[in-house]
């Protein structure tokens, strides 16, 4: 039986955190964070695990509170002018079993007041991975076109950065030139907060991953990893 993982309290906490983004406030309200943000996300990740295994067996939903799929709430402020210590969103990344250091595509979930999104794809690939993706498009465009075809896929939005001009070394008149311009290859679905709090949200999220699976398979194999 489907159950709701997230509640309005999650978004309420994140809104409050945005107003009081300091360590003293967070320490006083840490129990709220754990009850309404951290623990629900960890339960979602745990319940998603067997579902994701059926969609993409080599991608991992790891419910460990440290070192797992869930992103830390603490910001890395070492190289940022913004010294706010905490993120005002909760997110999780479901990576390939090859590990974090491998330039692989992944699945993603982001919860923030006013912005709920699931995503799938290759985000900020390094130069070698980006070249592999572009070269594969040019070498066998039909395979890429099949991976992004279909009515369900058309409902997912493309995300990420793109060049204004075709990348050097690639034909400017290529049928896939708009995709060749991409620096990120990721698609996603968005919902409102009410939908994120509904009992069927996990299945809706999983369905977006199923829809993106052909693209994920193409990306995974293209960068040289097993699907």
Structure description:
The protein is α+β, with helices and mostly antiparallel strands and 227 residues long. The chain has one domain (8-222): BirA Bifunctional Protein, domain 2, CATH 3.30.930.20. Helix content is 43%, strand content 13%. It has a five-stranded antiparallel beta sheet. Helix 5 (141-147) runs antiparallel to helix 9 (201-222). The model has no long low-confidence stretch (mean pLDDT 96).
Keyword list:
13% strand, 227 residues, 43% helix, five-stranded antiparallel beta sheet, alpha+beta, BirA Bifunctional Protein, domain 2, single chain
Short description:
By secondary structure, this protein is α+β, with helices and mostly antiparallel strands.
Which second-level CATH architecture applies?
Answer: 2-Layer Sandwich
Total strands:
5
Secondary-structure element sequence? HHHEEEHHHEHEHH
Instruction: Identify the strand order in the major beta sheet.
Output: 1-2-3-5-4
- Domain tally: 1
The average pLDDT is 96
| CATH C-level class | Alpha Beta
Strand and helix layout:
Elements: H1 8-19, H2 23-28, H3 30-55, E1 90-94, E2 106-112, E3 115-122, H4 127-139, H5 141-147, H6 151-154, E4 157-159, H7 177-180, E5 185-191, H8 193-196, H9 201-222
Antiparallel strand pairs: 1-2, 2-3, 3-5, 4-5
Helix pairs in contact: 1-3, 3-9, 4-5, 5-9
């Amino acid at each position: 039986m489907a159950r709701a993982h997230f509640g309005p309290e999650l978004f309420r906490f994140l809104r409050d955190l945005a107003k009081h983004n300091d360590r003293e406030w967070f320490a006083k309200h840490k129990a709220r964070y754990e009850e309404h943000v951290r623990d629900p996300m960890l339960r979602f990740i745990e319940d998603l695990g067997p579902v994701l295994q059926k969609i993409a067996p080599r991608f991992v939903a790891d419910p460990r509170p440290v070192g797992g799929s869930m992103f830390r709430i603490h910001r890395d402020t070492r190289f940022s002018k913004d010294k706010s210590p905490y993120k005002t969103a909760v997110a999780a990344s479901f990576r390939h079993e090859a590990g974090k250091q491998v330039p692989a595509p992944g699945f993603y979930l982001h919860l923030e007041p006013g912005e709920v999104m699931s995503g799938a794809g290759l985000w900020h690939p390094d130069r070698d991975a980006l070249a592999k993706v572009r070269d594969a498009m040019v070498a066998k465009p039909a395979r890429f076109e099949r991976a992004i075809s279909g009515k369900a896929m058309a409902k997912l939005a493309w995300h990420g950065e793109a060049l204004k001009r075709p990348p050097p070394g690639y034909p400017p008149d290529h049928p896939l030139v708009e995709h060749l311009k991409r620096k990120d290859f990721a698609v996603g679905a968005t919902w409102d907060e009410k939908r994120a709090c509904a009992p069927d949200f996990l299945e809706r999220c999983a369905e977006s991953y199923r829809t993106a699976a052909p693209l994920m398979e193409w990306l995974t194999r293209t960068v040289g990893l097993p699907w």
